[in-house]
Specification:
heterodimer; A: 944 residues; alpha/beta; Barwin-like endoglucanases; six-stranded mixed beta sheet; 16% strand; B: 261 residues; alpha+beta; Alpha-Beta Plaits; two-stranded antiparallel ribbon; 20% helix; 18% strand; elongated; 4Fe4S_Fe_S_CS (chain B); 4 iron, 4 sulfur cluster binding (chain B); (Fe-S)-binding protein (chain B); ET_IronSulfur_Cluster-Binding (chain B); 4Fe4S_Fe-S-bd (chain B)
Chain lengths: 944, 261
C-alpha cells in the first residue's frame, strides 16, 4: 500500500439491530430489513428470505426512511375550525375525537345505517374494515378497486378464477415469450422487475403493447405502440388468427374449460344461451366414450368439443362452436383492425404466429404425473410457455372488462394458464366467481348488514336494488348501470352523495383516499361538491371524517381528522382473508409491527376502529357484556376468528398438539412468531400440486388442508360467462328483475357471454375530430402508490410532470422546448408545459400522474414544482359521460363493472403562451397546512 | 498532483446491463440510503421540500431517447428509450485522482477503488471538472467531494453476511441489471458477462480506461424488420369461416391421442 493511502475500516458496524417487517411504500408488500441505530431507522433494504422480493427493493422501499421522518406527517387529531377546504383546524385529544365520531355515527346506526358511507382507499386491511362496516350495518363500503383495476380483477375471476398480481403471475422460470399489455409499471412492482430480469437472463423474449414506450416497455424486445382503448381489438385479432390456423390447445379446452359445455340454443327457451344442466344443476358435456350427455365433472368423463346434442328439434352446440362463430368473424381479422389499433396487419399476424410457435412448437414437458378432478391420471405436465401480464392500462376503459376477458381467453385457448411456462395462480387463488360471496345490501337499523358488501353477482337476482329498482348503494354498484361492480365505485360516491342520487347521506368516512385531488375525476368539481351548501347554509355532505397519516389535499376537506401512523409504526396483517403475498409456489401471509414507536399523538387507523367499533357496540367488536373486544389491531389480528379454525393469520396457530399452520385456534404468541420469522409465514405448494391448480386433486386437497375452502372445489375455466348471459336474458324480457328501459340495449350490447370489443363509450358522445388526441397518465415506478411527492429523495427523481407529446403532434403545432399547451376536453381545460417524446403512439399524449399537488398540502413549499408547473389530467376527466339529452347521469365507467374509464380521455391540444408565472392552470388558492413546512436542509445520519 | 498506482491487484467494478435496466431508480435510492448513513459525511439534500430540491447522489439514472436508423422498411424504426445508470467508473487512468491538489482522491492498490479521503478534501471541485463522466458531486453541506465508493464499507464488511458483501445498488437491483466483481480476473462472472455480451467502455476516447462496463441493449423491434427472418412465417389458415373450421376440428380431434384413428 502506498504510504499516502489511508487505512480504512472496511468492517464498520452496520447497525445495532435489524427489524424485519413489511414495506408499505406501495401495494407490493415486500419484506424489508430495517436497520436500527440508537433506536432510530438508519437504513432499509430488502429481506432475502421474503417470497415477494427475495432481497431486492425498489426506490420507494429504500426511501421509506424519508417517509418516517416526512414533515407532512399529521401530529394529532384535528377538528375543523375554518370553512371546509381551508385547512384550518385545531388539535384535539383522542378522547374528544372519538366522542365526536361516536356522537355522529351512533344515531345513524340506530335509524339509517346507510347514511354512513365508509370508503377506504389504499387499504390493505379490507377484510377488517369491511367487517367493521358490516357490523355498522351500512351497505356503503368499498375500497379503491373501482377506480383502479376492477376490470382486470373481475374479468379474471369470472373467466378463470383470478387475474394477475395477487391472483397470479407468469411462470417466470419457464416462460419463453412474455407479453406485457398497457400500464403495468405499478402493481407487483418488484416481482415484475425480477421476472423481466429472469427472462432476459435466459434469453427469452418480451413484447410490450403500450402507447408509451417507457419503463418495462423500454426494455421490451418488441414494442407495439397501440392506440389507447383498442387493446381488445388487437387481442381479438390474435385470437382470430389462432382460430383460423387451428393453433389451439384442443385437449386443454375440452378437459379444463367450458368450451365443451353444451349451450341451450332453443330460441324460445327462457334458458336460451345458458348451459344445459343435469338435475343437480351441473353443466353438461358430451362424453366421448358414450356420445351421451354427462356432467362436466363426472368420473372418467371425456368431454367432446365437437359433438352436438339434438333434442326436440333443436341442436344444442358446445360453447366451442360459439367461440368459432365469434372469433372467426371477419370483423376481427388483422386487416380489419389495423387502422384502429395503429398496428399494421402484418405485425399482428406475425405476433399471432409467434404465439403459436412458442406455445406449440416449443412446448415444455415436465415429467411429473398428476391426477385431475375426473380421476384421470396424467403422466406429464405439458406447458405452453407463453405468458402475459396486464393491469390498469387495459382495464381503465369503458370496454375494459371485455378486453380483459379477451386477454384471459387468449391465454386459455393457448392452454397457457396453470401450465408450465404460462400464467400461474397464487394460492388461495384460483377461486372462481361462484365460490366468492355474492354482494349484500340488506340493511337493518341498529343491526349488522346481512352479509359481506362486495362479491360476484351470478345474475339479475343478485343485484342490489330496491323493489322500485333504485340503488341500495350510494355508489350504485351492483345495479343495471354496472351489475358486476365487484369492487364498488369509490369514484362515484362524492358525486352521488352531493346530488342526493340515489339518496342523501349524513357522514362520509374515508381512509387513505385523496378524493379532493388525484384520486378523483373532475377534481375541481369534487372540491366544490365537498364544500357546497344547501339553502339553509349547511354542507350538502353534512359530515366528513378522514384518516390519513399525511397532510394530503383531502385533509382540508374533512371535519374530523383521525391521524394514522406511518407503516413502520404500526401492526398490520397481510392476510389470506384479504389480498395476501403468496407466490405461485407458496402460500404466505405477513405482518407489520412497530419497529419504531410514533413520536406524535397518532394511532393506527385499525386500532382506532377497534375502539370506535366498541363505542358503537358493533357486533364482532364488543364482548357479550358490551365491553371492548379487541384492545387494538394487534389483539384483533391474534384473536379474531373468521370461521372455525381460521383467523387473519394462517401461520403459527394453535392445534391440539401444539403449533400448526393453516387451521387452528388463536395463539397468543403468534405475532412474536411472525416477528421471529422475519415478519411473514410461508408454506410451499406440494410438487404434484404446482400446476393445473383448479383441476388438480393434489392441489385441491392441499387447499382444503390449508383452510382456503372446506371441501375440494374444482371448476372449469369459463371463456363463456353464463352470469353475463343471464343479464342479457333479462334485457330480452325474461325473469322478474328487469333492467330499466334506457339500459336494455346497453345490457344486450355489452354483456356478451363471449368476449367482444366495442369502442369506448364516450367516443360516441364526443366530437372525435375535434378531440382527436388520446391522453393518458401513469405513475412513475419510483412513486407508484407511494405518497412519494412529499419524499425528499423521490421528489428529486420525479418532481416535474410535463405533458409528453409525440413527434407528429409536436411538429404539427410547432412546439419547442419550454413551450406550453392549452389542453381541452369536453369536461375541462388545463394549461401545462409540454415536452417531446418520440417513443410514443402518434395520437397519444401522457403525463406522470399525481405529481401535481395543491399548494399547502404535503408540507411542500407553495413554490414547489409540484404545485406550480405540476398538474393533474384529472381536471379533464368527468365522472359522468357527456350529456345525452335524456336527463340521466351516465357514469364514465365500464358498463359491466363500473371501473372508472380514466383512459378513455380524448383531448384537443393548442399551443399557448407560457404563463408569466409558469403556473399551470387551473390554479387553486393555497390550503393552510396543519403541519407547517419542511426543513430547508436534510443531512439524515442517525448513527454516530 | 496525486499519483495513481502503476497497477492494482484487482479491478473491482460494476457491469451494468442496459438491455435489462428498466429505469426504476432502485439503485439510486439504495445508494443514497447506505451512503448517507455510512462512509463519510451524509449525502445531504438542500431545499428538500421546496422549489429546487437538490441533494448529493453517488449514482443517478438518466433516460435517453434514441432514434434508430431506418430499417429499410420505408418507415422509420420506432424510437427507443434507454435507461442509463451512471456512477464513478473507477478508471485505471482516473483524471480525478491526478488532478487532486491535496491527495484526498486516491485509487486503492489492492482493488482499484477510487475514493476520497474526506478529511483531506478541500472541496475545490477540480476532480469533478476533470471527470468526463460527471460522476463526482460536491456535498454542499459538508463541503467535500462525494463519489461512488463501490460500497467499500460493505464488500469486505465482516459484520454483514457474506452474501451481502456487495454494493448496495447491486444487492437491491430488482431486475438484476447490475453486477459486481473483479474485472481483472478473466474467469470472474463479470468478465464472462463482458465477453459474452460485448461489454463496452463508456467514452473510451477519453483515455480514462474505465473499469466499469456497460452491456449494450440487444437489438429491438425485430418484427418490424422485413429483412430479418427470425420469426415464424404467417400462420397457415385451416379455415376461413365456422363451417370449414368445424370440418378441420373433426380432423384435428381425430388426430389427437384417443381420437378416432
Amino acid at each position: 500500500m502506498p504510504k499516502d493511502q489511508p487505512i480504512l475500516d472496511t468492517s464498520p458496524k452496520v447497525s445495532d439491530e435489524v427489524r424485519k417487517t413489511t414495506c408499505y411504500m406501495c401495494a407490493c408488500r415486500c419484506g424489508i430489513n430495517v436497520h436500527m441505530k440508537d433506536g432510530k431507522v438508519a437504513y432499509i433494504e430488502g429481506n432475502r428470505d421474503h417470497p415477494v422480493n427475495q432481497g431486492v427493493l425498489c426506490a420507494k422501499g429504500s426511501a421509506g426512511i424519508m417517509q418516517v421522518n416526512a414533515p407532512s406527517r399529521l401530529k394529532a387529531p384535528l377538528k375543523r375550525v375554518g370553512p371546509r377546504g381551508s385547512g384550518e383546524f385545531e388539535e384535539i385529544s383522542w378522547d374528544e375525537a372519538l366522542q365526536i365520531a361516536t356522537d355522529w355515527l351512533a344515531p345513524l346506526r340506530e335509524k339509517h345505517p346507510e347514511k354512513l358511507a365508509f370508503f377506504t382507499g389504499r387499504d390493505q386491511s379490507q377484510s377488517f374494515t369491511s367487517l367493521w362496516a358490516q357490523g355498522f350495518g351500512t351497505p356503503n363500503y368499498a375500497a379503491h378497486g373501482g377506480f383502479c383495476s376492477v376490470n382486470m380483477a373481475a374479468a379474471g375471476i369470472y373467466t378463470m378464477g383470478g387475474a394477475f398480481w395477487e391472483f397470479g403471475q407468469p411462470d417466470w422460470d419457464h416462460t419463453k415469450l412474455f407479453l406485457l399489455f398497457g400500464v403495468a409499471e405499478d402493481h407487483d412492482s418488484n416481482p415484475i422487475k425480477m421476472g423481466i430480469g429472469k427472462i432476459k437472463e435466459r434469453g427469452a423474449r418480451m413484447i410490450g403493447v403500450n402507447p408509451v414506450r417507457s419503463g418495462y416497455n423500454a426494455v421490451a424486445d418488441d414494442w407495439f405502440g397501440i392506440t389507447p382503448g383498442t387493446d381488445g381489438l388487437l387481442i381479438m385479432a390474435l385470437i382470430h388468427e389462432l382460430f383460423r390456423a387451428g393453433k389451439l390447445d384442443l385437449d386443454y379446452l375440452a378437459r379444463f374449460t367450458n368450451a365443451s359445455c353444451i349451450v341451450n340454443e332453443d330460441p324460445k327457451s327462457d334458458q336460451n344461451g345458458l348451459l344445459l344442466r343435469d338435475d343437480d344443476g351441473q353443466p353438461l358435456v358430451i362424453d366421448k366414450r358414450t356420445g351421451q350427455l354427462a356432467p362436466w365433472n363426472g368420473e372418467g368423463v371425456e368431454p367432446d368439443l365437437r359433438a352436438t346434442h339434438r333434442a326436440a328439434g333443436i341442436t344444442h352446440r358446445p360453447v366451442f362452436h360459439l367461440m368459432a362463430d365469434r372469433f372467426l368473424d371477419p370483423q376481427y381479422a388483422p386487416d380489419a383492425v389495423a387502422d384502429r389499433t395503429g398496428i399494421p396487419a402484418t405485425r399482428i399476424k406475425r405476433l399471432a404466429a409467434d404465439l403459436a410457435r412458442v406455445a406449440f412448437d416449443e412446448e415444455i414437458v415436465i415429467d411429473r404425473p398428476w391426477t385431475d378432478f375426473r380421476g384421470k391420471r396424467h403422466d406429464k405436465m405439458i406447458g405452453r410457455p407463453v405468458s402475459m401480464h396486464a393491469m390498469r392500462g387495459i382495464s381503465a376503459h369503458s370496454n375494459g372488462f371485455q378486453t380483459c376477458r379477451a386477454l384471459h381467453t387468449l391465454q386459455i385457448i393457448l392452454g397457457a394458464v396453470e401450465t408450465p411456462g404460462g400464467m400461474r395462480f397464487k394460492p388461495p387463488y384460483p377461486k372462481p366467481a361462484h365460490a366468492h360471496p355474492k354482494p349484500h345490501g340488506g340493511v337493518t337499523p341498529g343491526g349488522p348488514l346481512n352479509g359481506p358488501h362486495l362479491g360476484f353477482a351470478q345474475g339479475p337476482e343478485d343485484l342490489l336494488l330496491h323493489e322500485d329498482g333504485s340503488a341500495i348503494r350510494i355508489d350504485k354498484a351492483f345495479t343495471w348501470d354496472n351489475p358486476f361492480s365487484a369492487h364498488g365505485m369509490m369514484h362515484m360516491v362524492i358525486s352521488n352523495a352531493h346530488a342526493g342520487d340515489p339518496y342523501k347521506i349524513d357522514t362520509l368516512f374515508m381512509y387513505m383516499a385523496n378524493m379532493a385531488w388525484n384520486s378523483s375525476m373532475n377534481t375541481k368539481a369534487v372540491m366544490d361538491m365537498l364544500t357546497d351548501t344547501d339553502e339553509a347554509g349547511d354542507y350538502k355532505i353534512p359530515r366528513i371524517i378522514y384518516s390519513d397519516a399525511y397532510s394530503s389535499e383531502m385533509v382540508a376537506f374533512a371535519d374530523l381528522i383521525l391521524p394514522d401512523t406511518t407503516y413502520l409504526e404500526r401492526y398490520d396483517c397481510i392476510s389470506l382473508l384479504d389480498r395476501p403475498i403468496c407466490e405461485a409456489d407458496a402460500v404466505a401471509d405477513a405482518i407489520r409491527w412497530p419497529v419504531v414507536e410514533p413520536d406524535r399523538d397518532v394511532r393506527g387507523f385499525q386500532s382506532v376502529l377497534c375502539d370506535l367499533g366498541a363505542r358503537l357496540g358493533l357486533p364482532g367488536f364488543v364482548n357479550e357484556d358490551g365491553s371492548q373486544k379487541f384492545e387494538d389491531y394487534a389483539d384483533y389480528i391474534t384473536n379474531h376468528i373468521r370461521r372455525p379454525g381460521i383467523g387473519p393469520l394462517a401461520g403459527w396457530r394453535m392445534g391440539e398438539d401444539g403449533i400448526q399452520h393453516g387451521r387452528g385456534a388463536p395463539n397468543e404468541g403468534q405475532l412474536d412468531n411472525y416477528i421471529a420469522n422475519g415478519g411473514f409465514w410461508m408454506s410451499h405448494v406440494p410438487d404434484e400440486a404446482a400446476y393445473y391448480k383448479p383441476f388438480n386433486r393434489a392441489y385441491q386437497d392441499w387447499a382444503v388442508e390449508m383452510g382456503f375452502y372446506d371441501s375440494p372445489q374444482p371448476y372449469l375455466f369459463t371463456p363463456y360467462v353464463e352470469p353475463l348471459r343471464r343479464l342479457q336474458l333479462a334485457a330480452e324480457g325474461h325473469g322478474r328483475v328487469q333492467p330499466p328501459e334506457h339500459l336494455r340495449q346497453q345490457v344486450q350490447d355489452t354483456m356478451d357471454p363471449l368476449p367482444i370489443w366495442y369502442a369506448p363509450l364516450s367516443d360516441s358522445l364526443t366530437d372525435t375530430e375535434t378531440y382527436d388526441v388520446h391522453a393518458l397518465s401513469q405513475r412513475p415506478m419510483a412513486m407508484y402508490h407511494s405518497w412519494g411527492t412529499q419524499n425528499a429523495w423521490l421528489r428529486q427523481i420525479h418532481g416535474r410532470n410535463p405533458l409528453y407529446v409525440p413527434t407528429k403532434i409536436w411538429e404539427k403545432h410547432g412546439f419547442r422546448e419550454g413551450d406550453w399547451a392549452r389542453v381541452t376536453s369536453p369536461a375541462g381545460e388545463i394549461t401545462v408545459p409540454v415536452a417531446l417524446m418520440a417513443a410514443l403512439n402518434d395520437h397519444t399524449v401522457w403525463t406522470w400522474n399525481a405529481i401535481g399537488k395543491r399548494k399547502g398540502a404535503w408540507a411542500l413549499d407553495n413554490d414547489a414544482a409540484e404545485a406550480k408547473p405540476g398538474f393533474l389530467l384529472n381536471h379533464l376527466i368527468h365522472e359522468l359521460l357527456p350529456e345525452k339529452g335524456d336527463g340521466m347521469r351516465w357514469s364514465n365507467s365500464d358498463p359491466i363493472t363500473g371501473q372508472a374509464a380514466w383512459f378513455d380521455l380524448r383531448v384537443k391540444i393548442e399551443k399557448t403562451d407560457p404563463p408569466a408565472d409558469k403556473q399551470s392552470k387551473p390554479d387553486f388558492a393555497p390550503q393552510a397546512s396543519p403541519v407547517g413546512k419542511g426543513p430547508d436542509v436534510l443531512a439524515w445520519k442517525v448513527g454516530t | 498532483m496525486t499519483q495513481l498506482p502503476t497497477a492494482t491487484q484487482r479491478k473491482l467494478g460494476l457491469v451494468i446491463d442496459l438491455d435489462t435496466c428498466v429505469g426504476c431508480h432502485a439503485c439510486v435510492i439504495s445508494c443514497k440510503g447506505w451512503n448517507t448513513e455510512n462512509y463519510g459525511a451524509p449525502l445531504s439534500d438542500l431545499d428538500p421540500y421546496g422549489p429546487n430540491p437538490h441533494g448529493t447522489f453517488l449514482n443517478r439514472v438518466h433516460s435517453y431517447e434514441v432514434q434508430p436508423p431506418d430499417l429499410g422498411t420505408g418507415t422509420p424504426a420506432p424510437a427507443q428509450l434507454i435507461h442509463f445508470p451512471k456512477s464513478c467508473l473507477h478508471c485505471d487512468d482516473a483524471p480525478c485522482v491526478t488532478v487532486c491538489p491535496t491527495g484526498a482522491s486516491y485509487k486503492r492498490v489492492e482493488d482499484g477503488i477510487v475514493l476520497v479521503n474526506e478529511s483531506d478534501c478541500i472541496g475545490c471541485g477540480l476532480c469533478a471538472w476533470a471527470c468526463p463522466y460527471g460522476a463526482r458531486e460536491k456535498d454542499e453541506v459538508e463541503g467535500v467531494m462525494k463519489k461512488c465508493t463501490l460500497c467499500v464499507d460493505r464488500i469486505y464488511n465482516e459484520n454483514l453476511p457474506e452474501v451481502d458483501r456487495t454494493p448496495a445498488c447491486v444487492r437491491t437491483c430488482p431486475a438484476g441489471a447490475r453486477h459486481f466483481g473483479d474485472l481483472a480476473d478473466p474467469d470472474s462472472h463479470v468478465s464472462q458477462l463482458v465477453a459474452e455480451r460485448g461489454g463496452m467502455d463508456l467514452m473510451p476516447e477519453m483515455g480514462t480506461k474505465p473499469v466499469n462496463k456497460y452491456l449494450p441493449p440487444r437489438p429491438r423491434d425485430a418484427s418490424q424488420r422485413e429483412e430479418i427472418d427470425i420469426l415464424a412465417p404467417f400462420l397457415e389458415p385451416v379455415a376461413e369461416e365456422p363451417k370449414g373450421f368445424l370440418g378441420w376440428l373433426d380432423r384435428a380431434l381425430d388426430a389427437l391421442p384417443g381420437g378416432k384413428s
